[in-house]
Amino acid sequence: MRLTDLEQSMLDGKQGEAVREALAFQLEVGRFFGAERFVPITNAHLMGDIEVMGNAGLGLLRRLSDHHGHCAVSTSTNARCMHFGEIDELRQDIVEIEKEKEIVRHIKDMGAVATDTCINYQTVYQPKLGEHVAWGDTGTVIYANSVLGARTNYEGGMSSFAASLTARTPAYGFHLDANRRGTLHVNVKAQLGDTADWGALGKIIGHPNQDYFSVPVFHGIDEMPLSDHLKHLGASLASYGSMAMYHMVGVTPEAMTSAQAFSGRNPDHTIEVTNADIASVYSAYNYLEAQANIVVFSGPQLSIFEMQNIAKLFEGRHVATGMHVFVTTNHAVWSDAKRLGYVETLEKSGVKILQGVCFYILQRLTQIREENGWTNLISNSAKLVNTITAHRFNTILRKTHQCVDIACTGELT
Amino acid sequence: MSTKLQLKRAWGPTVEAPVLVMKEGFSPRYDLDRWTGVISRIGHTAEGQSIVGKILIIPTVKGGVAAGWAFYDLLHKGIAPLGLVFGKLNPVMVQGAILANIPIADGLDQESMLMLHSGQNVRFDPSNKTITIVNFL
Fold first, then answer.
1. Mutate to test the interface with B, among A242, A383, A392 (most CBs of B within 10 A)
2. What is the DSSP string of A121-179?
3. What is the domain count for chain B?
4. Torsion over CA of A192, A194, A199 and A204, rounded to 10 degrees?
5. How much is the pLDDT for B1?
6. Cβ–Cβ of A390/B77 closer than 8 Å?
7. Alpha-carbon distance B55 to B83, whole Å?
8. Is the pLDDT of residue A273 over 80?
9. What is the 8-class DSSP label of residue A80?
10. A158 and B95 in contact by Cβ < 8 A?
11. Of A176, A187, A257, A353, which has the highest C-beta tally within 10 A?
């Protein structure tokens, strides 16, 4: 890789040990992918919680902190694995809670803003067309590349920290024009309404085409989708297909026309998606016999409009015996939802609201499932029903209003 | 008799170990019990198998940024895989493997993948971008 004088001085340790270590790590990653240079970034989004970092990751963070590592660009943080409030069903380890707090302390000391959110693109920072960033959450990455036209790869673990410390990232993958061209033609003939329908579309395309460098181009979307629709589509494509970008002709900024979306590349193949295909996603899930089940609205965290919608659906109703309902959102949305009365409505209905976390990354989740005897997990998030499976939930995708009906009647439909 | 299989991109030290061959994508967060090193996702083609000390053969990749930290964590818990060989991968796998000093490669084609069976010993040599089957089962 070609280094500028500044980058060479970073590698020589002249900008401190934390920066040296960060750049050396980035160089190895860049070389793997054949990057020729670094590209400056304006914003970083850090992913790191004790559930996935473990003691080893915490140790690394302590070392960066000891070496006075400091964010060189504006930096936010992803959802956490700990809900710091009291919730009966969620008994998390006290020792691990303290470690999570220590992680947050180190990150704040480095100069990051602890937003604890996986919807930074809705609530924190919206990079512009062509702006290079380094984001450490797949759902945020695919939204940035696709909907905003910004440029980022998945920057997992140390990678997002390194980018924040050096204010740059290796130029490979979605930083380069060549990789942003469409590879797959998707003809959507289905009517998509609920956010779960958009997640189902993401599963249909993502699951059989697992490839980070695959870029689906959606045609036939005749009604302008909302931010929450595109968020669930992207989160699902990223989850099932490991994809980091899509185009939607007439909707996303690098796809004003089909020709622009493909930019001269011929699509590998065409997939047609009909109403029947969407319906068959829902019908493929089967319930198991159970005494206790759980309905979860999470993955990604809910926007204020999603909070408003489910508050309306739960108003005047109550969670049925044997059912448990959780919602996750970030601190900013929670504060607004509190002010606007949505929190009160939901809590009166028996819904538990978790702040600054995402449900599937909760620390000690397998044990929490066992302690509560939860068997079926019903969600309107196609991503969540995929990502949570290591904890051996039986997962079911349903539309938002169906999730609320199931929660309030206990009837598994 | 030994057979050499070609890889596209590779990084890390040479290792020799038994392979665990998966028939689908793998994510440490979606599929693995990260306290035992056993594949725990219901219905995963390697459900119930341990990844500890194995070279994982993985055709495709799933979402998730967890691998960025997870391999480093597994290494310090003493339950890490010894190598990661993909058909297709994403950057998080590379970032996580480099952090944990676990050799990683991509570009193993489908034909080569069919020659590998769980339990075979292989030598994974990233500098030459090859996998050599040491013993056939």
1. A242
2. HHHT--PPTT-B-EE-SHHHHHHIIIII--B--B--THHHHHHHHHTEEE--GGGSGGG
3. 1
4. -30
5. 57
6. no
7. 4
8. yes
9. B
10. yes
11. A353
Domain CATH number, residue B90: 3.50.30.10
pTM for the whole thing? 0.96
Range of the domain at B62: 3-135
Enter the tokens of residue B126: 């990233």
- DSSP class of residue A3 equals -
C-alpha span between A33 and A86 (Å, rounded): 45
B52 to chain A, any CB pair closer than 8 A? The answer is no
For the CA atoms of A213, B50, B105, B107, what is the dihedral angle to 10 degrees?
-60
Which position has the higher pLDDT, B3 or A247?
Answer: A247
How many CB atoms are closer than 10 A to CB A65?
Answer: 17
Q: Which residue has the tokens 């994809």?
A: A243
Q: Radius of gyration of chain B from Cα atoms?
A: 13
> Which domains are delineated in chain A?
5-175 (3.30.499.10), 180-222+231-242+256-282 (no CATH), 288-409 (3.30.499.10)
Q: pLDDT (tens digit, 9 = 90+) per residue, A77-108?
A: 999 999 888 888 888 888 999 999 999 999 99
Nearest CA in chain A to B47: A390
| Mean pLDDT computed over every residue of chain A | 96
